[in-house]
Amino acid sequence: MSPKSKWTSWIKVGARAATLAVAAVLLSGCDAVLLDPKGPIGEAERDIIYLATGLMLLVVVPVIGMTVAFAWKYRASNTKATYAPNWNHSTVIEAVVWSIPVVIILILGTVTWISSHTLDPRRPIASAQKPLEVQVVSLDWKWLFIYPEYGVASVNELALPVGRPVHFSLTSSGVMNAFFVPQLGTQVYTMPGMQSQLNLRADHAGSYLGISANYSGRGFADMNFKALAMEPAALKDWIARAKAATPLDTAAYRTLAAPGTHSVALYGTVEQGLYDRILNQCALGGICTNEAVSMARIKGPVPKGPLCDPKTGKPISIKS
Predict the structure, then answer these.
(1) pLDDT value for 224
(2) Which SUPFAM superfamilies does the record associate with it (predicted)?
């Protein structure tokens, strides 16, 4: 190959590499929200990411370095390099190759075991304050938040008190989904007829992106919400605005539950027992557990419909 052809080849390779690098930057388009946590759960999960990445780099960096070094040392033009075509074993190399991965696996296994318990979504966050209860329902394709303590509800806007733990009870009106506020941590699935639990805390005031992290149909891309972490005064104002809004009763819920995206909305009151009926899959019709039990007691005929245990969310059978 002539010198000119060689330079042309290198220029083409460089141009392609530069194009790929620019494309990667332009296509990334994402903020590193996982690495900018705003609560204790998010911080702990970020530290695990850093630890795992660092341990992996203990292997990746030396391997890349040795690949370049070996390629240079044993290039065809280096006549000083040792030529050993019959070499096939080194006890030292075997020890290093096996011991480092084993140590990394032991460390990662220990971290996984500890964090799977300390970061269990159901585990309460230690605090002198009583957790705020929030009931979450994933709909097609919007999020419904109910606040039993305040008697209000919201769609696609989650209000959180700064510094106070929040206990979430989560379910789905239909298809399986996933609730995730990256800067607060821990993705949790929502499933129809079942209830998941999650404990989070926001330590800094701000507006954080909440997303649906499980594909659920054509409106999935727009199924986002804002998590507003507010100081007491701001939260009080938000609750006052919510109380001035329209009520959320069964009829309003049925309209809300229809497939489609939805803008932010507030509800001043919530019909008693609405979340339990959503959980038991009878808010849109069907037979709830308490009604079925009453029918069983009087030994009357039990109409057909979904029957669920309110504690487990699992189907039950009632004999007349």
Answers:
(1) 95
(2) Cupredoxins, Cytochrome c oxidase subunit II-like, transmembrane region
Instruction: Check: CB of residue 191 under 8 Å from CB of residue 157.
Output: no
From residue 163, how far is each of 94, 132, 135 by CA, in Å? 52, 11, 19
Q: Is the pLDDT assigned to residue 320 strictly greater than 50?
A: no
- Indicate the number of domains in the chain: 3
Looking at the structure, tell me whether residues 64 and 177 fall in a common domain.
Answer: no
Give the range of the structural domain holding residue 179, as residue numbers without chain letter.
132-278
User: Rounded CA gap, 274 and 280, in Å?
Assistant: 10
Beta-carbon-side half-sphere exposure of residue 242 (alpha carbons within 13 Å): 25
In a domain, 271, yes or no: yes
| Number of helices and strands in the chain (H, E) | 7, 11
Cα 1 off chain centre by: 54
**Per the domain annotation, does 257 fall within a domain?**
yes
Mean pLDDT of 276-281: 92
SS3 (DSSP) at 129? coil
Query: Do 102 and 235 fall into the same domain?
Result: no
Region for residue 286 given its phi and psi (left: phi exceeds 0; alpha: psi -120 to 50; beta: otherwise): left
Give the SS3 label for residue 42.
helix
Q: Do 184 and 257 belong to one domain? A: yes
Summarised one tens digit per residue, pLDDT across range 222-273 is 999 999 999 999 999 999 999 999 999 999 999 999 999 999 999 999 999 9
My answer on whether omega of the bond before 141 falls inside 30° of 0, hence cis, is yes
224 vs 212: CA distance, rounded Å: 6
pLDDT grade, residue 64 (50/70/90)? very high
Q: What tokens does 54 get? A: 């660092």
Rg (CA), the chain: 28
